[in-house]
Amino acid sequence: MAEASARKPSRIQQRNRKRILDAALEVFSRHGYRGATLDLIAEEAGLSKPNILYYFGGKEDIHVTLLNQLMETWLDPLDHMDPDGEPLEEILGYVHRKLEMSREFPRESRLFANEILQGAPRMGPHLESDLKPLVDKKTALIRTWIAQGKLADVDPRHLMFSIWATTQHYADFDAQVQVLSDSDTDALDGADTFLDQMFRKLLTP
Questions:
Q1: Same domain, residue pair 47 and 80
Q2: Are both 144 and 98 inside the same structural domain?
């Protein structure tokens, strides 16, 4: 017990790790993996480069840690699609949760997008072991709802891709969205109403 306690990171160590990861999230989401450097992360964190290397083995170690933390957050809304719920509302609820994630976690969304654009070199195993089985399970559920006449006949996988594309766009292309949107309104507020109407019309039998 004493040995386990001795291995437990101190509050300062926990705080510094969090500080480094938050700084790295900012740097990776802004510059991508290739453009990010330990010097940029250290500068953003307000720590020295040797201090960064005390906590992490290098840039890839930090990046993989962030991706591992992200996966659980990313999969949670899809995992909570309830088989016993009202099908249309379950899917629309998923759309709204994904859009809210673009509001709350824009840097995480860009981190994920940058990794996928590079061919998922560090996240590939997670896509195979975590994301694919969950998507397989939920698309099978959607097919069941369609067969029961509760949803319009659409391709469940393309439906999923469309939900991701339309919701994550607001985080991944934020600079473009801000330029093109009406400056007096919140683009995401308008998106919420528009996407609800679009998917409701598409999915209503």
A1: no
A2: yes
Q: Which of 31, 57, 83 is the last residue of a domain?
A: 57
- The enclosing domain of 31 has a CATH number of 1.10.10.60
Spell out the per-residue pLDDT of the chain, length 205, in tens.
444 444 677 888 889 999 999 999 999 999 989 999 999 999 999 999 999 999 999 999 999 999 888 888 889 999 999 999 999 999 999 999 999 999 999 999 999 998 898 898 988 888 899 899 999 999 999 999 999 999 999 999 999 999 999 999 999 998 898 888 876 667 787 899 999 999 999 999 9
Domain range for 9: 1-57
Alpha helix segments (H runs only) across the chain: 2-7, 11-35, 38-45, 49-55, 59-79, 87-104, 106-117, 124-126, 132-147, 156-172, 174-180, 187-203
